[in-house]
Specification:
It contains nine helices and seven strands; from the N terminus they run H-H-E-H-E-H-E-E-H-E-H-H-E-H-H-E. The protein has helices at about 15-30, 35-45, 65-75, 85-95, 130-140, 160-170, 180-190, 210-220, 235-245; strands spanning about 55-60, 80-85, 100-105, 115-125, 145-155, 195-205, 255-265. Helices cover about 35% and strands about 25% of the residues. Bound molecules: S-adenosylmethionine.
Length: about 270
């Protein structure tokens, strides 16, 4: 059960303790359903500057450590730090290796020294951070001059079919909230980091039915944790209403779920 006893953070994003608990619970099931996360992280890896050779790199929001292992292979001369807010994820990732250090911590308050990293890599984690300016400030602080921050995140438009279908049923918040792409642009511009590239690209997955989508979100730990979400069991009539409403989006490949993915490469000026 999701713990509702903690107050929600301002800004409409879920409480971090709930995020950590939800991802910890999802650690065992995450890898089996993380195809989008794999595709996005590989795309982000492909966008890293080819001449990058970090002596110390950070995988921020490492989850099960899949990309910590990829970074460890690519930068095998460097010292890797894998960091996550969810203990359950770190316990899953640590025995699989890839990084030298596995650290519990918050992207908004990194437990790392200033000027201590050459690369901050973060795939599909910072959409969970209410204070993205703080995340950028921390990346700026821990990067050495010339260091790179590469992140992938999600913005408004993500899961819009699910959001609109729920709205047709009861008008309540059933889908996680996301920042506008223009907010990412503004915050990156104001960060003191140089914006090398920043773009948003849609990626659409297809499901045979609504249940397959909502089960997958739960297995990822990414189901709705927003303040204002409906409590209690989701009644049968509402589920049927949701299934009916979602059908308007059906395509030949199945029911679409759009992810609006943000990719950014930023650099700390010399
Ligand atoms: C969708 S998973 C992505 C994991 C991994 N990067 C990947 O691509 O497979 C998001 C991860 O971000 C972590 N996370 C969420 N908020 C965080 C925060 N404030 N600081 C550090 N990690 C956070 C979650 O615990 C979760 O493991």
């Amino acid at each position: 059960m999701t713990d509702l006893s903690h107050p929600a953070l301002p800004g409409g994003l879920p409480d971090k303790r709930q995020v950590a608990a939800s991802f910890s619970r999802a650690a065992a099931s995450y890898d089996s359903v993380a195809q989008l996360q794999r595709d996005v992280g590989h795309e982000l890896l492909g966008r890293l500057p080819t001449n990058l050779n970090p002596s110390r790199w950070l995988d921020m929001g490492c989850g099960t450590g899949y990309f910590s292992r990829a970074l460890g292979v690519r930068f095998n001369q460097g010292e890797g730090v894998a960091l996550d807010i969810a203990q359950g994820m770190l316990e899953h990732a640590r025995p699989l290796g890839g990084a030298r250090h596995f650290v519990a911590g918050d992207a908004e308050r990194l437990p790392l020294q200033a000027d201590s990293c050459d690369l901050v890599f973060s795939s599909l984690a910072v959409q969970w951070c209410a204070d993205f300016a703080a995340v950028l400030g921390e990346a700026h602080r821990v990067l050495r001059p010339g260091g790179v921050m590469a992140f992938a995140s999600l913005c408004v438009g993500t899961l819009h079919e699910l959001r609109e279908s729920w709205r047709a049923v009861d008008g309540l918040v059933h889908v996680n909230r996301f920042r506008l792409f223009s907010d990412y642009q503004q915050l990156c511009r104001d960060s003191g980091l140089r914006v090398v590239s920043l773009e948003s690209r849609p990626q659409v997955l297809h499901y045979p039915d609504v249940r397959s989508l909502t089960h997958e979100l739960k297995a990822l730990g990414a189901h709705n944790l927003n303040p204002g979400r409906p409590g209690g069991l989701t009644g049968r009539a509402r589920i049927l209403g949701l299934m009916h409403a979602y059908e308007q989006f059906r395509q030949a490949e199945g029911l679409p779920a759009t992810y609006q993915v943000v990719y950014a490469i930023l650099e700390k000026p010399l």
